[in-house]
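Deliverable D5.2: sample structural annotation.
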Amino acid sequence: MTDRAFDRPAYALAADLDRTLGDPNADSGPFSYAAMVAHEENGELPPGAVDLIRSWGFAQYLVPEEFGGRLRNLEQLFLLTRSLSRRNLTVAVMFGSAILGANPVWLWGDEEQRAKVARGILGGDLACFAVSEPDHGSDLGTNETVAVRHADGYLLTGEKWPVGNATRGRFVTVYVAVEDAGSSLLLLDKEELDEGSWDNHPFVRTVGLRGHDLSGITFHDTRVPAQSLLGRPGAGLVEILQVLQITRTAIGGLSLGTMDSVLRIALRHARERILYGQEIYRLPVIRRHLVDSYLDLLIAECTALPVARALSVAPSRLSLWSSVVKYLVPTLGEQVVQECARVLGARSYLREGVASGVFQKLQRDHAIASIFEGTTHVNLHSIASQLPAVARVADRPSRGGEDVLRQLFDWSEEAPQWHPSGRELRLTSAAEDEITRGWNPAVEEALRIAEHELPQSEGTALAKVVGELSARRTAFYAHLATASLDAATTEGQDRAAEHCVYHAAASCLYTWLHTFGSERAETGGSGWLVLVLQRLLQRLRPEAVLDETFLPWLEERIMSSLDAAEHFSLRTVKEAAGQSGA
C-alpha cells in the first residue's frame, strides 16, 4: 500500500480550498468558467470571487506564522496558488502581487514594520512592489525615483509603472535612490501619506489578466518618515534580486494550475467529440498531444515543488534554482497550452462553447508567466552566469548533499517552517547545487534498483534512458568546465536551457528514489519515470520516442483523475501504484 506521502497538512489545505472554489464547469458561482468569461468581457473579476477567497482565509497564508499568520513555508503557499490558479489566474496574480510587496518586509523589516503590514494583510489590505519605471523596465541599475532628505524623513519624487496592485494596494514597497545612501527600499503606507502628494495611474489595458490592477503610482515631493527604510541603506538592488527568488519559484504554481485546467478541458473534449465514428482521443495525433502534455505537467511538478521546499531547507541555492523553475516551468506550461489548443482546434479560439469558452482566457492569462519577475531571457542569463562554476564541480558529490536531497524530495514530511531572513539568500549559489552534483550517485542507485528490484521491461528501459542522459550530461559539463561562456550570447542562453533539462531529469529521478519507495516495483511505479525522462530527452534529441509499453497504465491514471476531478499530479500516480501492490 502507499505510505500516503501526500496526505499532509499542506495538501489537505489545498484540497479544502479546491472544494470551496467548487466545480468550474458549474452553471453558477464566482469561480465557474461561465462567470469568469462573462465578466472578463468588461475587464472585471466575477462578483464575490475575492470575497470568497478572503472568507476562506487565503490572506492568512500570505503572513508567516511568526508574524501572526498561518504561512508555514513556501511549499504550502505554492500548493494553494496551484489550486487557485487552476480556477482563475487573475485572482491568483492579485494575491501573488501582494506577497511580492510584503516579502521584503518579512525579510528585512523591523518589528514595527512587520507588525503593521501583518495586521493590514490579515485585515484584507493588499501590498505592491513598485520597482519598474516607464523608461527603464527591468534595467534596475537606472532608478529615477529619488528620496531627498527633509526634516525627519524624506521627500519622494518619481513614477513607478507598471505595478501590480498599485491602486488597490495599501502598502507600497518602493525602489528609490535615497540621497547619500544609494538605491534602497522604502515601505510606504498610503493611509499615512499626505493627500494630493501622490496619485495612481489608470489600469493598463492588457491582453490577459483582465480585471487585475496593473497600474502605476507617481510621487510629488511626498513626505516619507525616516523609519520607512527597509533593510540596509543602499542595498535596494541586492534586496530586489533576492526577494524575486521567492516569487520566481511561486510562479511555478501559476503554471501548474493553468496546465491542469487546459489539459482537463482538452481531455474532456477529446472524449466527448466524435469524428470518423470514434472519440477523437483514439486518433494517434490527439493522443500524443495529450499524453505529452501530462508528462510535461509531471516534469514541471517534480522540478518546481522541491525548489519551493528549498526556501526552508537550502535558501542559498535559490539564486540558481529559482531561475531554473522560472524559465522551465512556464515554458512547459506554454507548450501544454499549445498542445491542448491543437486538440481543441477552432474551439480554442472561441469565447463560448467548450468549457464556456474559457480556454482562450487561460491561454492569454498564462502568457504573463514567462514575462514578469524576470523574462525568460533574464532567467537564462542568470543561469548561464553561474554555469561555469557549477560545471567545474558537477561530478563531485557535495558534502551533506544526500541529506539536502532527502529533505527536498522526500515528500512524506512537510518542508520545515520558514523563518524569514534576508541574510540566508544569496546572489549566486557559489556551485552549491546538490541537484546537479547528486546525479551520479543517484544513477548508481537507480541502476542497482533497475537490475534487482524492477520487472525486466521497466529495468531495461530505465537503464537505457538514464544511460543516454548521463552520457550527454557528462559531455555537457565537461565542456563547460574548460570553456569560457558569455551569459549574454545566444550560446549562453542555449547552454542554460540545456542545464535546465538536466536539472529537471535529476529532480524526477530524486523524486522517484525518495518518494516512490514501496511503489517502485509495482505496476506503473517506475514506468512514469521512464516516460518523463524520455520526454526530457526529446528536448535534447527530438527524434527520441516514448516507450509505448508504459503508456496504457499511465493513460488510465489520467482518465481516472479527470473523472474524479482530482489534480493531475504524481499524487494520483503514486497512490495508484501503491494500490496495485496491495
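Annotation notes: Strands lie at 127-130, 146-150, 153-164, 171-178, 182-189, 198-200, 214-225, 229-230, 274-275, 278-279. Residues 236-272 form the longest helix (37 residues).
The annotation will be released with the project's public dataset once the embargo ends.
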